[in-house]
Amino acid sequence: MFGRLAALVxxxxxxxxALLVALLVASAFGAARLRIDLSSRAFYGDGEQxxxxxxxxxxRWGHDxxxxxxxxxxxxxxxxxxxxxxxxxxxxxxxxxxxxxxxxDAITDHPASAAVA
Length: 117
Fold this sequence. Notes:
Layout: H1 2-11, H2 13-33, H3 40-44, H4 49-61, H5 82-96, H6 113-116
């Protein structure tokens, strides 16, 4: 089957090339107009119960689009050791230095952490 297709393409090189170019142009035009929607509405839809619950959540708590939570887990020792708290402090300071970051809350910012560290 592929042999016959190859023979057909070779016999009609100019037509095959023109068809391929037209297909590529049409694909590029379609790709340029393609929009990706990663919003919650794209997953839940507008009329779903989950969408209504999300609206209620957002109205009460605000948008969480720009929120990232970093959770620390250790296999050995203590999360509150000097070395690990120092690493958390360094990470928090580095995040604060980024222009895209508006706010950083870290355990090392809590007044009681001064007694531990």
